[in-house]
Amino acid sequence: TTGLLKMGLSCMSSGRGVLLCMVSTPSALSEKGLELPQYDGKDRVLDINDKNYKKALKQHSMLCLFYHEPIADSKELQKQHQMTELVLELVAQVMEEKDIGFGMVDSHKDAKIAKKLGLEEEGSMYVFKADRVIEFDGLLSANTLAEFLLDLLEEPVEIIGNALELRAFDRMEEDIRLIGYFKSEESEHYEAFKEAAEQFQPYIKFFATFEKSVAKELSLKLNEVDFYEPFMEEPVSIPGKPHSEEELVEFITEHRRPTLRKLRAENMFETWEDDIEGIHIVAFAEEEDPDGYEFLEILKEVARDNTHLPELSIVWIDPDDFPLLIPYWEKTFKVDLFRPQIGVVNVTDADSVWLEMDDEEDLPTAEELEDWIEDVLSGKVNTEDDDDDDDDDDDEDNDEDDEDNEDDNEDDNEEEDDDNDNDDE
């Protein structure tokens, strides 16, 4: 289950969450060059069946298949399915010139085809590219899906050839990224690096350089590959150069979970499902807000000082990235997201415990955050405490109800006694 996120997104639509984007209303004042696409009404999304799936795979450079549960009788669920289909139709229209096809697979009606193609999770989008199948594990909005597909169309490795490109690389602190130094594009070691990149595209970014000057700036030796964890100041050199494709894939898979990572629309469900023993440490902070920026810098400091702890993984959420989820999160967690927050969240039932900040004007220091995180990792702070508090509240409510019932019974007994006295008279 995607737990918290799926519950929150159910208010938008079904399955993985559907958000209709890029739909504009015509305006007499609209200028050429800023006319957002509108669905033209043409059916481009195929109803995939046993007769057409092979042709669809051959016909397109990439084929996107949405695997869904059977269409229900409920009008509400039917409308949600129509919204999903409309999102796919709009993206199919925009991507038509890119030779990307779209289809829908019913998990009941087309169960045999789904099994052949390896489709497993209802509500997921699967992208077929050459001999690879990539699962899109993000918010199913037109914008997010289009961006994901455009990233897939790019080369799996980007070449860094000068100081300006290197500066851009250095600024990508939110991403997991790798960079290697190779003799040329014909190098067998570069080829292995490229093959490994295809396994993780577009979720992990791969870079390479063939320039000695760039390699010198990065302190890279020939055939050496550095692994950059998000928000860390220094990379980790992958040991045992030169590397085979298998060795690179194994290392990346083992080190893929960062100490601090940002929740993003394009892989939000993958991130949320990658919990540690059913919980996440979640931090809310608006990067463009002064307090949020300061809190994020404190989080980075804590992450850098504790990156050696394999059980520590903090998910940073910028509320500005998910405006439709803000009311849900505030109601569920009982926190104010207009100021920074950090807490422990159970991904199954969304129970949570949040760090109490004594002074609303002052943010916790790095030392105070580290102490709290130690309590979380040791189990002193956990979501079961929240359950106990809820139980205590329930007990108090029950006690109050019992007292009210006793008072009512006493009043009833007094009234009965008065009635009996009147009868005797």
UniProtKB/TrEMBL annotation:
Q: Which InterPro entries is this protein grouped with? A: Calsequestrin, Calsequestrin_C, Calsequestrin_CS, Calsequestrin_middle_dom, Calsequestrin_N, Thioredoxin-like_sf
For this record, the Gene Ontology CC terms, alphabetical, are: sarcoplasmic reticulum lumen; Z disc
List compositional bias (Acidic residues) regions by residue number.
384-425
Q: Which PROSITE patterns match?
A: CALSEQUESTRIN_2
Sequence segments annotated as region (Disordered): 377-425
Check the UniProt entry and state the signal peptide residues, or none: none
Which keywords does the record carry?
Calcium, Glycoprotein, Muscle protein, Sarcoplasmic reticulum, Signal
| Main subcellular localisation | other
A Gene Ontology biological process noted in the UniProt record is: regulation of cardiac muscle contraction by regulation of the release of sequestered calcium ion
Subcellular location field: Sarcoplasmic reticulum lumen
Role played = Calsequestrin is a high-capacity, moderate affinity, calcium-binding protein and thus acts as an internal calcium store in muscle. Calcium ions are bound by clusters of acidic residues at the protein surface, especially at the interface between subunits. Can bind around 60 Ca(2+) ions. Regulates the release of lumenal Ca(2+) via the calcium release channel RYR2; this plays an important role in triggering muscle contraction. Plays a role in excitation-contraction coupling in the heart and in regulating the rate of heart beats.
What's the protein called, per UniProt? Calsequestrin
Organism annotation? Astatotilapia calliptera
Organism placement in taxonomy: Eukaryota, Metazoa, Chordata, Craniata, Vertebrata
